[in-house]
Known about the structure:
CATH superfamily of chain A: P-loop containing nucleotide triphosphate hydrolases
Largest sheet of chain B: 6 strands, mixed, barrel
Distance between the termini of chain B: 33 Å
Shape of chain A: globular
Helix content of chain A: 25-40%
Radius of gyration of chain A: 17 Å
CATH architecture of chain A: 3-Layer(aba) Sandwich
Distance between the termini of chain A: 24 Å
Helix content of chain B: 55-70%
Shape of chain B: elongated
Largest sheet of chain A: 6 strands, mixed
Oligomer: heterodimer
Strand order of the largest sheet of chain B: 2-3-8-5-7-6
Number of domains of chain B: 2
Low-confidence stretches of chain A: none
Number of helices of chain B: 16
Number of strands of chain A: 10
Low-confidence stretches of chain B: none
Order of helices and strands of chain A: EEEHEEHEHHHEHEHEE
Number of helices of chain A: 7
Amino acid sequence: MQQPVLTASHINKFFHDPVTSQVLTDISFTINRGDFVSVTGKSGCGKSTLLYILSTMDTDYEGSLVIDEEPMNGKKEAQLARVRNEKIGFVFQFHYLLNEFSVLKNVMLPGLKLNKYPVQEIKERAMQKLDILGIASLAEKNARQISGGEKQRVAIARALINDPLIIMGDEPTGNLDKKNSELVFEMFKKLAEEFNQTLLIVTHDQGFADRTHRIIEMEDGKIIR
Amino acid sequence: MKFLLLADIAKSLLLARWKQTLVAAIGVTFSITMFITLLSFMTGLNDLLDGLILNRTPHIRLYNEIKPASRQPIQLSPDYKGNYHFIESIKSGGSRTEIYDAAAIMRTLKQDERVLGIAPKITAQVFFNDGSIDITGVVNGIDVVSESALFHFNEYIVAGSGSDIGKVTNSIVLGKGLADKLLATPGDVVQVTTAMGERFPLRVVGFFQSGLQDFDKTQSYASLGTVQKLLGKPGSYITDIQIKLNDIKSAPAIAKEYAQLFQADAEDIQTANSQFETGSSIRTLISYAVGITLLIVAGFGIYNILNMMIYEKMDSIAILKATGFSGRDVKRVFLMIAISIGFFGGLAGLLFGYILSSIIDQIPFNTAALPTIKTYPINYKPVFYLIGSSFSLITTYLAGWFPSRKASKIDPVIIIRGK
């Protein structure tokens, strides 16, 4: 029984500055629980734009988006923030860790915001996530003291903290060298296969995409495959 | 929980830029310090100057003015009704400056609950004889106990004892300026001649110094009985009744009422000394204006620093929003930063303001005009501290509001895509 996690139907997106141009045309697809999906395409094909629409951060589009059987259209900013907090984990090209906090605190922050578990439990869960990613030893370090590859893994741990329905990645390996890219891919794979985590990764790295379970290929704002 | 989390983030951002934060907080501290000090000092000075006059001025003075009869006989004649009267045959009469039935009036006043206290008084014009010259002066007959209680008479005695005039018969307290002219010291006897030509020896028991030089050169005090004796009047003779009210603001209305009730002239303090109130209110206004200007300047400092912080922390704001913090949460974080700068800066400001005004309070300030004042006057009214702290919070809140709103409006997509 396939369970849809995210359904996009007939999504159109226009940029109005400087002239109106259509960046996404009639995008429709469904992601089911446990899918490991990659979105590929050349630079400027609209794959990142699509991701930001799916992530609920960009609300300026036409069409409908349903996450976990809940329509996102017409929701208020604070409600969308809540959805992102609870159901979506993000990994970006850049790690975006808060330098003021320790690694552990960075991972804990979305959990503290969700406020579903007591602080002690959030801490234990954060340690557990760091452990899955093999960086438990860095927990007490300051976010600025660790290497780029480690930072990206901390970002993945942060994405995992609230056990999200889906993890979205925007070129998560784009800034990493071969070895670290490989490591991060292994992490995603492990999450998908061992923990049945749903993943939606935007990448232009064909090697990365080829190894995922499903590829959505885009060109000029349309899905071609 | 949510509040604590946001406070924790605010604290981290604050401490990450602690030097800037400190500068902003010092700005607030400085302005609050100056605000408190300025107002304490200024109102201290105001109170002192007002006290010079107001402490010794009755709120209402009942007396009989020397003036022509208000209803001349010609007005009573029906023949000349409606005509202009050139003839005023009854001149001003000075024979009865006495208040009629003073004892009954005083009894009535004592029962009036709007009245704090009353002090009877007699003024007598005299000459002080010193060798061949006569110095004009005034002897005020007073009841020392009520005069001290209501008008701080004892506080202005600089030598001898003021209360002795109630105990020693035929004694007098001279103004410092007058005593200097007469070369008198306590214990000496001065000769006094009344307007009627009677000559009296009076023993000097003390000096007083009011701070108003002209006043001290002519005035002297004796007991009611002594002055009555001097003037050859009976024990019921009183020329003034000085009234102190519970509420000084009601003086004009009550004065009118008493003038009618007691058939006497009644002068209220506002009419007699209107210039003082104007002076003090303008000085206070200026102090407030300066203090608030300082605070607003500090507010701009906070505004700048928060703006910079937001530009620096764009990434952090973007990721907070991406991971589920709403615009409102972000706004609260930055407002907390602003208000904590205001709170701690303001708190330090109140403390330093208190310390600075205490230091000023210790600086010697000796002037011949003000014998009772030894140091600069400071008013430690709690209301200044209240105003200072609430203003520091309000200005920092406003200074933080615009940058916070900007932070809350940051679109994470733009920041994240820009990388």
